[in-house]
Amino acid sequence: MGGDHGPKVILPALVKVIERRPDVRFLIYGRDDAVRPVLDQLPRLAGVSEFVHCEVAVRMDDKPSQALRHGRWKSSMWKAVEAVKNGHADVCISAGNTGALMAMSKFCLRTMASIDRPAIAALWPTVRGESVVLDVGATIGADAHQLIDFAILGAAMARALLALDRPTVGLLNVGVEEIKGQEEVKEAGLLLREANLKSMDYRGFVEGDDLGKGTVDVVVTEGFAGNIALKTAEGTAKQIGEYLRAAMSRTLMARIGYLFAKSAFDRLREKMDVRKVNGGVFLGLNGIVVKSHGGTDDEGFAAAIELGYDMVRNRLIEKIKSDLDTFHARQPQLQAEIPAAAGDGDE
Amino acid sequence: MGGDHGPKVILPALVKVIERRPDVRFLIYGRDDAVRPVLDQLPRLAGVSEFVHCEVAVRMDDKPSQALRHGRWKSSMWKAVEAVKNGHADVCISAGNTGALMAMSKFCLRTMASIDRPAIAALWPTVRGESVVLDVGATIGADAHQLIDFAILGAAMARALLALDRPTVGLLNVGVEEIKGQEEVKEAGLLLREANLKSMDYRGFVEGDDLGKGTVDVVVTEGFAGNIALKTAEGTAKQIGEYLRAAMSRTLMARIGYLFAKSAFDRLREKMDVRKVNGGVFLGLNGIVVKSHGGTDDEGFAAAIELGYDMVRNRLIEKIKSDLDTFHARQPQLQAEIPAAAGDGDE
Q1: How many Å lie between the alpha carbon of B251 and the closest alpha carbon of chain A?
Q2: B312 vs A337, which has greater pLDDT?
């Protein structure tokens, strides 16, 4: 029911996924009058799907607390998250209200044992390929232990998605000399270096320009700076796209040049296509939830589904659990330092 | 003496400025053996300059404390800053060690009365023109009063440089619903809205993608997020430049297209030329100091000088002083709230 376009975009996206991941099965949660008419036009989708009517749909402008109040136990969003909890679904994908989705996911799935707060991870296109960047907006501020949790979560995601045995990890920091970065970041860096984990190759601090370079496979930061970095990069890409469009249409010669180079421009457009990296992954919960951009089209929503599919296929949750266990078994003093009240895991 | 190339790049930059700002005069501080041979080749520059030999030069890798210890009172960097303090110069420009330059500037020029900490402001190219963004790296973290100071400083800079009567101002924040941003940012927003200043048109929160759009003339943030945003944007621009270069050289058709559209590409390159927006402006001190990128060429360093020149011509320091006075006169309760120990102004 979520996103700017609802079932009209969501359901055609599912059809695209069936073509590329033929063993996929869908549980579709939504209001009958909105979903049925579209689903009836898509017999192939109907054949591999189960549709569950839900009277209540979370609105895009509901506050998380409102959404929980009105939508808990019964809304389509809640039901979709609950399907993961009950084991009916392997992953939940939504283009709906981010705050509500995070609130319901936390409430329903709970954070993993030893994880204090979940993070939202993004796949970041780089000149080398893709990196995992987290947190891009679930939290504001993070202490050293939370940053280490994010590093473990992000490294597991990189192993599940990017076919890496031991992804490189960096902590996002500022490089100007008079300030050596946030205390939390420095402390997390010391602890990560000391831990020398098998699941990741910790490489130290990275700066904002290392994101696009792909200097490391996983970039770890708290959510305020991470969200600003993500949106700044999106804004810069759009800005340069506008410059390019304006330059290419300004003179006849430029327009002729554009025609000759059209396939090159198409390739560039494909490279810069944000739809292909659509999907913020909620990490640190007992289940996988993927948040699609609300404004995306069917291709973008399909990418978010496939992101979830691939993480399930590559056993992301098991990887995370085993990495967390290994880390805490080797760092018992660290675990003891985390106040019991901070974690709300259910294990 | 600073930057990656020293006098070989710095002095030719001064020649460029003389051509475009014929009334400029230079005080050049450096080691005789490094500066003289280059200066002797540039008679026109020698005619409008005074060269002052300084035995000591701050190294690019000196820590700020080291630089102060070895370079205070006598290094070329100190002498250049001191020239502003003594009124011998109107503005100091350096391509040297950022941390050392900020430490010496603070120590020598002191912060303005009522200003707690200086900020570094950058000119940010946008699709609408240019915006002022601060702080991009002088500080980590900022409370509400410091953010308000940054807003006043940035608005004065926008008026001095961008020919605006009442620049629009936004506070950089995150927009995801479940978290409403940092407490300090929210408090600063309330106070700015309440103050309704003549010197700026406060427009509320902006997000990372508003930077490139030029949604507001002045974007205010603390230095950690600001530095990461700045470097992320630089990195993204480079990344897209690489994509574009790769796309345009991949096929014969693309290369032919490139030739036809060459003037358009030149225009794009000019738009994306970071040299033209070179220069971090230290704001909040009793004098103007501009930090050029260390790796820039003569055109880039010339841009940093002209940035300083234009701010002096447009009486930036007087604008800031008068805006601060107006603000604090109207907000006596706010001034009273600032702990006396926080300010180290000398007025």
Answers
A1: 8
A2: B312
